[in-house]
Amino acid sequence: MQRDRRRAPVLAATAVVAALAAVALAANLRLAPAAPAGTGSAVAATVSASASGIDSPTAASPSTSPSPSPTPSSASPSASAPATAPPAGVAAPTSAAGFAFRKTVVPMAFPLSSKARYRYTNDFLIRRDGIVRWYNHAFSVNPDGSLHRAHDGVDIYAARGTVVLSPFDGTVVDPATLWRPWDRARYGGTVVVRSDEPTSRGYLALLVHLGRLDVAVGDRVVRSQRVGTVGNTGNAAGVPFHLHFELRAPFALTVREAGRRRQLDAFDPYPSLVAADPHRR
Questions:
Q1: Of 9, 20, 63, 253, which one has the greatest count of Cβ atoms within 10 A?
Q2: Cα–Cα distances in angstroms (integers) from residue 147 to residues 80, 178, 216, 261, in the given order
Q3: What is the pLDDT of residues 195-251, one digit of tens each?
Q4: Strands, E, within the chain: which ranges?
């Protein structure tokens, strides 16, 4: 009994110490500094990124600055940009000044499909029979002083019925209103497309000797749209089937041929055909 009285003060002191320790612990918890602002947001962002399958960014050390956001100029090009837009800076001449009669390339689509079988060489300005109209090139002067005709385009040989395509976005026009008198017996079935593309505005493509015409004067057409089929109409009867193709400028070109100075709009289409030919890429 006396021993219990001696132990009572010790137990009481122990209880007091324990109580004081509990109070101190509670005080420390209340006085602990708050977490830095944004920590919770960073953790939430990391979890969200991980949950969505995106690699979360590595936390930067205090001495490392975060990477800046991309500026508009460094953003990737818009996916909605037209895939068929002509390359910047590439355009046909807009005047006769400095025009390269045998070298000019006009941006266009090839007039036959990439799946078609065809062949051609540069037969522009070779000798041809027939009357020389004011809009035809001349090869030479005949003994009687008249002009002998030259070839105004390039012949692309292909099987009969091969689909012919429009080289430009543009409008189908009547050749008889542009080149008078129009020689229908020579040209046969013909489609003429006037370009309204920014890189070739006003240029004309002549698709000649067609066996079938699938468009009419006044129709609006787009690049690579079907406009007819290869045939042998006009003066092509009796020769291998082919498409006679011409390019004509929207302004007069002064040329010297057959000893004379003449103004014409037809120029060598071969460089443009080669540039557009899918078999040569």
A1: 253
A2: 54, 22, 34, 13
A3: 999 999 999 999 999 999 999 999 999 999 999 999 999 999 999 999 999 999 999
A4: 118-119, 138-141, 147-149, 154-158, 163-165, 170-173, 189-195, 204-213, 220-221, 226-230, 242-257, 260-267
Q: Let me know: does 228 contact 207? Beta carbons within 8 Å.
A: yes
Both tokens assigned to 164:
């012919």
- In 3D space, the residue among 116, 215, 197 whose CA is nearest the CA of residue 158 turns out to be 116
Measuring CA to CA, which residue among 121, 133, 152, 149 is closest to residue 245? 152
Cα–Cα distance, 191 to 175 (Å, whole number):
8
Start-to-end CA distance of the chain, whole Å, equals: 113
Cis ω on the peptide bond leading into residue 107 (within 30° of 0)?
A: no
The answer to whether 233 and 210 have CB atoms below 8 angstroms apart is yes
What residue type is 105 in one-letter code?
V
CA-closest candidate to residue 46, choices 35, 61, 57, 62: 57
Instruction: Kindly tell me if the per-residue pLDDT of 29 is higher than 60.
Output: no
CA 143 to chain CA centroid, nearest Å? 51
Please say if the pLDDT value at position 31 is more than 80: no
Token readout for 62 is 């205090």
Predicted pLDDT of residue 23: 43
- Using CA atoms, how far residue 203 sits from 101, 153, 197, 200, in Å, is 14, 14, 9, 6
Confidence of residue 70 (pLDDT cuts 50, 70, 90): very low
The Cα–Cα gap between 159 and 262 comes to: 36
Q: What separation in angstroms does the CA of 142 have from each of 138, 173, 186, 261?
A: 10, 34, 20, 17
